[in-house]
Amino acid sequence: MKALWKTSGQGGWARLGAVLLALLLALPFGTSPATAQEPAPRRNLFDLLFGGPRYERYERYEPYERAPRRRYNRDGSIIEVKPRPRKPAPRRAAAPRPPQPVAPPAPEPVAKLENARQILVVGDFMAGGLGSELENAFATSPGVAVVERSDGSSGLVRKDHFDWSAELPAMLDEAKPAIVVVMVGANDRQQMQIGGTREKFRSEAWFKEYETRVAELAGIVASRKLPLLWVGLPSFQSPSMMADAVTLNAIYRSQTEKAGGEFVDIWDGFVDEDGKFILTGSDVNGQQARLRSSDGITFTKAGKQKLAFYVEKLVRRHLGEMASPDVVKLDSSSLPSLSALPAAPGQAIPTHPISLSDPELDGGKDLLGAAPLPSILVETPRDKLVKRGELAPAPAGRIDDYRIPAAQ
């Protein structure tokens, strides 16, 4: 510096100012957030040979904020600050829903006859739903009436709550039924009081006493010479309940058949092809519907209708003509409409003339034998083999004839 000052004088000051100005211009005064970068370290030979970490350079951008909407007075002061409203996104039009099937209107119930046959339905909460749907099934049958006597929490275990063996005879005397339907057992998976001891469920003594109580209830109906329909338990969502239902159904079937009754097996109507529990299945019309509630035990409206459908078929078979769906009224409402009024006595009915030699009179123009012969409906051996896999028996004496010859 001193040398530069001595040699140049005032010219040295000018050169020194130019150098300082160049240094100041070369230094960055600041970096904006949009261009700020973080330098990435360079990869050395060791990283290239042995796969060291790779560094990437990236940039950070600040989100753009929209300026608020402002209003000014005449003097330039701000009087109101409001953010600019964003335009709402256009709403997509909802797809049109397919037309829902309309359920046919329920038939109007008819007045029951004085000598209508009574159907007595007894049991627990499942029997209550069965009885209500049986009433709807026979609503148009004046010769059939349904009497439902159920207790939702009852069973054959808790006699202290409701004793069916003691209450059923009074119900039979009151209703005088023509057929008795029993559905009970959904509440019986619990301890049983036998004498002075309490037996656990699934024990040998428990099953022995339970069979006795089932036989006693079925014997009360059989002693009155009444048809008995004992409806079995359906499948349940719980695997343990499902296994117990299978065991209890075996007891119901054996004891009911011993008493001369008929066991109504509804199991296949509420399981799939693999025998597993289903919530949704085919209803009485063959349509997919929800059959069971979310608890995996109770029935929905469609499930109760399907349950009653099993019993309805057997009831109609026992009652015969009394279970006819409707009463035929021989009046003007049921007669077909006449196209013309009958002629008065002594007057001819005007009709079109018909020629007796007209070939169209008998509906044919060809002579006998002109039409092709009808095909023979007898299946050939080839048709039997292709369609059903049946092979005609070999003639007697051939090598593939395996029939044992008759004794001489």
Question: What descriptive keywords fit this protein?
Answer:
9 helices; two-stranded antiparallel ribbon; Rossmann fold; alpha/beta
Summarize this structure briefly.
Helices cover 30% and strands 12% of the residues.
Structural notes for this entry:
- The N and C termini lie far apart (147 Å).
- Helix content is 30%, strand content 12%.
- α1 (2-8) crosses α2 (10-26) and α4 (125-137) crosses α8 (301-319).
- The longest helix has 20 residues, at 204-223.
- The chain has helices at 2-8, 10-26, 45-50, 125-137, 164-175, 204-223, 239-258, 301-319, 381-387; strands at residues 69-72, 78-82, 117-123, 144-150, 179-183, 192-194, 197-199, 228-231, 262-264, 280-282, 288-290.
- It is of the alpha/beta class and 408 residues long.
- Pfam families: DUF459.
- Keywords: Signal.
- It comes from Neorhizobium petrolearium.
CATH architecture identity of the domain at 117-320:
3-Layer(aba) Sandwich
- Helicity, in percent? 25-40%
Question: How would you describe the shape?
Answer: extended
Q: What name goes with the CATH superfamily of the domain at 117-320?
A: SGNH hydrolase
H and E order: HHHEEEHEHEEEHEHEEEHH
SSE layout and pairing:
Blueprint: H1 2-8, H2 10-26, H3 45-50, E1 69-72, E2 78-82, E3 117-123, H4 125-137, E4 144-150, H5 164-175, E5 179-183, E6 192-194, E7 197-199, H6 204-223, E8 228-231, H7 239-258, E9 262-264, E10 280-282, E11 288-290, H8 301-319, H9 381-387
Parallel strand pairs: 3-4, 3-5, 5-8, 8-9
Antiparallel strand pairs: 1-2, 6-7, 10-11
Helix pairs in contact: 1-2, 4-8, 5-6, 6-7
